[in-house]
Amino acid sequence: MPGDTDPFVEPAERTRYDLMRSKHVIVPLSLRRKLHLCGLLALLAALVGPIVATLPAAVRETYFAGDPMTTRLGAAAAVLVGTVALAAAVAGLTAVGVSLDRRPDPPESSVWTLIAAEDAASAFGFITGSLGVVSGAALLVSGHWGIDAVRRLNEFGVQPYLPYEVFPATPRLASLAGLVVGLGALASSLYVGSP
Questions:
Q1: Could you give the number of structural domains in the chain?
Q2: pTM across the whole model
């Protein structure tokens, strides 16, 4: 795609950070692109609320004693943990971007610290964040496939609507957290890396 790559810049015009980053960073996407992806994953978490709110009546009657939106669920806890990981990634990536805006050509010791911080934030967001959000959302959406699909999952030992009272994660809370983190990530991406 034409807009996916940065325009070619002569190596002599690049900063030490740019040269070291291009050689050593694990996920070779720009900070702005990484923040966009974190924001989109978090907005996926925000869909958990509408997914649970629109479950078929048969699923609601069978698997929920009260309001599904306020029931503490294990799958909602997974989504919330993923969203918290995405929030940490957004904070880390934004901190790297702000540091580079303040000092575009940092000394070599700082370059390695920034690359390590970017890699750690990227790994935390893209691995822990995406696993939590996608797996939790997939479990919660299973009720839309019908009551038989949920029963088949239960036969395999997977309980998508397992109450989890230990952790106060409800679909409403997971959805709200996803919306806040997603919008924050997208807003941060407008600032980080802007000309």
A1: 1
A2: 0.87
